[in-house]
Amino acid sequence: MNAENLKAIKEFYSGKRVLVTGHTGFKGSWMCAVLRHLGANVYGYALEPMGDPKLYDILGTCHDVKSEIGDIRDLDKLKKVFESFSPEVVIHMAAQPIVRESYKDPVNTYSTNVMGTVNILECMRLFSEKVSFLNVTTDKVYENSERPDHAFCEDEKLDGYDPYSNSKSCSELVTHSYEKSFFKDNKNIQISTARAGNVIGGGDFAADRIIPDCVRATIKGESIAVRNPVSTRPYQHVLEPVFAYLLIAMKQAENPELAGSFNVGPDPESCVTTGDLADKFVNSWGEGASWKDLSEMNAPHEAGFLQLDSSKLKSTFDWEPKWHISEAIDRTVIWYKVWDSGEDMREFTDDQIREWMG
């Protein structure tokens, strides 16, 4: 991000009322930490943080936000949040985000990811006089024919394959419908969607994600089991999309003509196979880290090749990623090493945010 955009973001978010759904999750906790740096007034709405350990607790996020523990599918509770807080910016990240979990429980995945989006848009329709809204979806919303070296653009067909990806495609369609049906002529309501690539960074402890799997195995002194070593993904440090989301929400609030759908992904050199990512993790971690190929013959379907064309984001907002894949891995590895040594992770995370902001 260039210095001009960064200065504008600092000025725009200082004192702003920002509602973050999904604030107890991995990306949500990083978002809240960044917004604290910017001086925003943050209201979080999400389920209790899951798993153990929890980044939300590690960073003490509860001290930085007014936190409402609730289900995004609970429309009545969500209405009360909008009535009491009257947000100026809404970053919608609450979701069931795991592909494999969506195969196990598709009903929960669809109800959370689709009706959750309906509910928050309905609250905007009923209560918002002026708001900038960003729906965070995924790079997996596109119909993927597995064409080698094809980078998806925003105007391509939405039709994710698995229940998670498809539910996010539906979330996009719901957003577009509400925009056209209820907000088309309302210049005070700006709506965009952001389709982000795979994020990595310190503090992700979720199951069935490659970096948490790497960390858990390495700390235990075990070899990392890699299920899909030849799958290619657009990996990026979590701070890249977090700041991109904030930039989109700010810019559309200042100029409604800039609202739209945006891919948020790294440059092509950061689109690597899972095996390459594991290699980079092992090299960065050093002694004690190794991985083995445990490809599954009958695993649930996941895309083999996925890459985003983020030229629209770059040209519209003068955006460029700051940390490429090797830098992202190095920052991620050092975060986990510092955490494993028992250091103050709130301060260390703040240091990484300051480093990224430069």
* Top-tier CATH class: Alpha Beta
**Shape descriptor:** globular
How much of the sequence lies in strands comes to 5-15%
Count of DSSP H/I helices: 13
Structural class by sheet pairing and helices: alpha/beta
Strand order of the largest sheet: 3-2-1-4-5-6-11
Radius of gyration: 19 Å
Q: Count the E strands.
A: 13
Blueprint (SSEs and pairs):
Blueprint: H1 3-13, E1 17-21, H2 26-38, E2 41-46, H3 55-58, E3 66-69, H4 75-85, E4 89-92, H5 99-104, H6 106-127, E5 131-136, H7 163-183, E6 189-196, E7 199-200, H8 210-220, E8 224-226, E9 232-234, E10 236-237, H9 239-254, E11 261-264, E12 271-273, H10 274-285, E13 291-293, H11 311-317, H12 325-340, H13 345-357
Parallel strand pairs: 1-2, 1-4, 2-3, 4-5, 5-6, 6-11, 7-10, 8-13
Antiparallel strand pairs: 9-12
Helix pairs in contact: 4-6, 6-7, 10-12, 12-13
